[in-house]
Amino acid sequence: MWTLLIILLIVWLGLSILGFVVKGLIWLAVLGIVLFLATLVVGLIRGARNRT
């Protein structure tokens, strides 16, 4: 599970950087940031639930 989360975080980070680099694709950067944060939160919640 952690491997999948790390891969998703890297993909979302790449989309965010691409959105900021390519002029006019700010929507892609915003989408990448939102998906990055959502994946991070889901991963933290599932990780905390599995520890207890």
From TrEMBL:
Highest taxon above the source species: Bacteria
Keywords assigned: Membrane, Transmembrane, Transmembrane helix
Transmembrane region(s): 29-48
Protein name, per record: LPXTG-motif cell wall anchor domain-containing protein
Source organism (scientific name): Microbacterium azadirachtae
